[in-house]
Design goal:
This protein is an alpha+beta fold. It has two domains: 178 residues, Sulfite Oxidase, Chain A, domain 2 (Alpha-Beta Complex); 121 residues, Immunoglobulin-like, CATH 2.60.40. Helix content is 16%, strand content 29%. The protein has a five-stranded mixed beta sheet with strand order 5-4-13-8-9. Strands 6, 7, 10, 11 and 12 form a five-stranded antiparallel beta sheet that branches. A five-stranded antiparallel beta sheet has the order 17-16-20-21-22, with no helix packed on it. It starts with a helix and ends with a strand. 40% of the residues are buried. Bound molecules: the ligand Nc1nc2c(c(=O)[nH]1)N[C@H]1C(S)=C(S)[C@@H](COP(=O)(O)O)O[C@H]1N2 and molybdenum atom. The site of molybdenum atom has 5 residues, from loops.
């Protein structure tokens, strides 16, 4: 058993792994590492009831100040923070690192014992649920991304990966299908929309089509990655509407009103609407999109040689079927390898080995989803939407690696 493993490793280093030579520090120099060391006792105890990261890990969300919020949403009172995408491993965004996009006010401070969800409006039997009652119903767990529609890459050499793409996160959400609650309440004939209503100082509401609410993927979620949804992400209850723009996925959910028209509430039209293409200005589903997260804008390569290009792809209409990567500014494209599952409406990880020869290079990726939709170039996108800064900037993101290893936004 041991002998076999050793052979395999030797083969890798000798054969296909030739490119890797020069990466490792060299045998016999596990430099600086102390073998017999322990964490202080009290720290070790502290980490037992509820774990924390190693004290050497400092990855954090990139919080945006109110000036940026003012520019982004015209809202000086919002709470917004970006997912540190460049540090994410695998497809799940740890809940403490999931981006935050909140308008108007901080999260409400909700006692779950007092929380209620009301299903009302055009229904036969209005219903009120406690959290305990919701948890008694059959639950569903699903891995889905949530992306803010303001997540669009913008030009500017210095713009980083996170500045252009950090308003996305992917969690395993656990809850009850909204359709189950609506069926229980009995939707009346003529109903066509639902309006989600939230707690909080500004008591925001969002309208979305009843058709999506009745699909079994729309959840009233109380769980995020195996524990209660975090306060900034909607504790104790939020809507998860897979594939739809983030703005619909209401946090701190307290009501679902069934109606025969969209309400176009203040928070729906103030910072989100573009009336050119649809009356609500909504595009609903996020288009096929991808981004290389290493090497990516704001990063620096330590020197030439072997690298693994990694990134994420996703689509609001289903699963990612293929990701192509170009390392020569879009002249040629190669199929990237999908790492881990490619789930519908979930972040999907891709990778491609790359040896950087030290000369300037432009790296980019494009996503093809299961419907066959292809992530557009900025030119294709502009031709369709009429303006580059239209909603859903799902354009291809090129990164330029300079000869000294700086990685710059090449849009
Ligand atoms: N009640 C309430 N729900 C809300 C918002 C809000 O400001 N208030 N922001 C919306 C927007 S614009 C987005 S992009 C998503 C972001 O979800 P997250 O903060 O959990 O990442 O929540 C949506 N739900
Ligand atoms: Mo958002």
């Amino acid at each position: 058993m041991h002998a076999k493993r050793a052979t395999t490793r030797r083969q890798v280093l000798k054969g296909g792994g030739a490119a890797l030579v020069g990466l490792a520090a060299g045998a016999g120099t596990a430099s600086g590492q102390t073998l017999r060391t322990t964490m202080p006792d009290n720290l070790a105890r502290e980490l037992m009831a509820y774990g924390r990261r190693s004290r050497y890990v400092e990855t954090g969300r990139i919080t945006l100040d109110n000036k940026v919020n003012m520019q982004m949403h015209g809202d000086p009172y919002g709470f917004d923070a970006l997912t540190p995408l460049g540090e994410q491993m695998g497809i799940i965004t740890p809940a403490p690192l999931h981006f935050i996009s909140s308008h108007g006010d901080p999260p409400p401070d909700v006692d779950p014992a007092k929380h209620r969800l009301m299903i009302h409006g055009m229904v036969e039997r209005p219903l009120v649920f406690t959290m305990d009652e919701l948890k008694r119903l059959p639950s569903v767990s699903r891995i889905n991304f949530i992306e803010c529609l303001a997540n669009r890459p913008q030009p500017g050499e210095e713009r980083t990966l996170e500045q252009n793409h950090g308003l996305i996160g992917c969690s395993e959400w656990t809850g009850v299908p909204l359709s189950l609650l609506l069926k229980e309440a009995g939707v009346k004939n003529g109903a066509s929309w639902v309006v989600g209503e939230s707690l909080g100082r500004t008591q925001q509401a969002r309208s979305f089509p009843l058709g999506k609410a009745m699909m079994d993927d729309t959840l009233v979620a109380y769980g995020q990655n195996g524990e209660p949804v975090q306060p900034h992400n909607g504790y104790p209850l939020r809507l998860v509407i897979p594939g739809f723009e983030g703005k619909f996925q209401l946090k701190w959910l307290r009501g679902i009103k069934v109606t025969d028209q969209p309400y176009v509430t203040y928070w729906e039209h103030s910072s989100f609407t573009r009336r050119e293409r649809s009356p609500l200005g909504a595009y609903w589903e996020q288009g096929p999109k991808s981004v290389i997260t290493h090497p990516a804008g704001g990063q620096r390569l330590p020197g030439h040689g072997y690298f693994t290009i990694v990134g994420f792809a996703w689509s609001g209409t289903g699963a990612v079927s293929r990701v192509e990567v170009s390392t020569d500014g879009g002249r040629t494209w190669q199929n990237a390898e999908i790492e881990g599952p490619a789930l519908p409406m979930a972040m999907t990880r891709f990778k491609l080995p790359w040896t950087w020869d030290g000369s300037e290079a432009v790296l980019q990726s494009r996503c093809i989803d299961e419907r066959g939709d292809v992530q557009p170039t900025p030119e294709e996108y502009g031709a369709f939407w009429g303006e580059y800064a239209a909603p859903h900037g799902n354009v291809i993101q090129p990164w330029r690696v300079t000869s000294v290893g700086r990685v710059l936004n090449a849009l």
